[in-house]
Amino acid sequence: MHINAHFDSGNIDVQSAENPSDIRLRIRMDEGDEHGQWFFFQLSDVRGEACTISIENAGEMSYPAGFENYRVVASTDLSNWFRIDTAFDGTALSWRHTPETDTTWFAYFAPYTYDRHQRLIGRAQAAPGVRAEVLCPTPDGHAVTLLRFGEPAANKKSCWVIARQHPGESMAEWWAEGFVNRLLDPEDAVARALLERAVVYVVPSMNPDGAVRGHLRCNAHGVNLNRAWKDPDETHSPEVYFTRRRMHETGVDFFMDVHGDEALPYNFVAGGEGVPSWTEAMNQQFQAFKNRLAAITPDFQTTYGYPVSPPASSDLRKATDYVTETFGCLAMTLEMPFKDAANHPVPEIGWSPGRCQRLGASCLDAIWQTLDD
Ligand SMILES: [Zn+2]
């Protein structure tokens, strides 16, 4: 038997791998030792053997509730990901599986690799009217890349979409790929019309260091980037520092920050209701956006989500609150599930890369319909 995680986004430590019926593993914490939950590893040479796999420190991770009613993601080809019944007793996360192939990969969610990220950048920049700007190098030496769709002009709005500040939320970059694919489609009337009236700025991966390292939430310096927006640091949180600087250059008329939520089995958005400058007009614009998106795709819903922030409870270290307060525009955090969208579940795959991509495509319709607001 062989278990390893020495690859892009890999994360697991082996405690015991002598007996297939008693494979004991531990998740490695993010830099800074504060967060952890993401795992991704390869299990080999146990074809036909009944394996019991247990992650012994699951209960010590950032969001233990995320492992309740959760089903692990598995693949034999890194393209098709399926779900396996999984148990969580408050301490260990465990599942049984008898591989029909020599190698199986297991992950918290379908990984989105740095190679795929680079191909996305390459494919996008080859299209007419699309530019790829490196905003900064990261502490580990990756590039934070901004895709700009269209040329800025006085009569055009600036729409900003950023994804994957939290690197273990790989669904965010699957979403970004679906969103970008639609912008790249010359036969898509909505994309064409949107780009006549707006420049769309997309950062598909805000935290490539954390993604490659197999982190849940932090960058290479152990910084949670979505707590760095009020006072970003050129050295410790350059990903936010340089993105924010570019946003101040372009102005922002619409902003979406794309994430995944460990616990809630729904797609939902959270707004900037708690900021000091929040108005009833902003609230109406936000409610209208949610209702439009819910009408466009049944995978999105408005019933379940985070409690609405009370007035004057904002945290300007978070991107949505910072942008709402600074630019006075419609800004929101989109959350997708690690589990499934319980309003329209697909048990075999749960919430999946394909469903993320389609939700990304649907958000383009909602932005288009919101432009006149
Ligand atoms: Zn997040």
TrEMBL record:
Pfam families membership: Pepdidase_M14_N, Peptidase_M14
Source species, domain of life: Bacteria
Name used for this protein in its record: Carboxypeptidase family protein
One GO MF term attached to the UniProt entry: metallocarboxypeptidase activity
CDD domains: M14_PaCCP-like (cd06234)
Record PANTHER family: CYTOSOLIC CARBOXYPEPTIDASE, CYTOSOLIC CARBOXYPEPTIDASE 1
InterPro entries per the UniProt record, alphabetical: Cytosolic_carboxypeptidase, Pepdidase_M14_N, Peptidase_M14
Residues annotated as domain Peptidase M14: 110-373
GO biological process, one term: proteolysis
Location of the active site: 335
Keyword Protease: yes
Keyword Protease: yes
UniProt family annotation: Belongs to the peptidase M14 family.
Coiled-coil ranges (or none): none
Cofactor: Zn(2+)
This protein's UniProt keywords: Carboxypeptidase, Hydrolase, Protease
